[in-house]
Amino acid sequence: MKLKVLAILILGMTIANTSLAKEKPIGTYQNVVDAFMHSYLNNDYKKLKTLLSEDAMFSFNRDVRVVKHSASAVLAEMKKNQGIKQQNCNINAKIITATDALVMAQVDVSYTSVNDQQKNYLVLERDKDGEWKITNVYKFYSSEKENIKEKSNVVV
Question: In which band, very low, low, confident or very high, does the pLDDT at 38 lie, cut at 50, 70 and 90?
Answer without folding.
Answer: very high
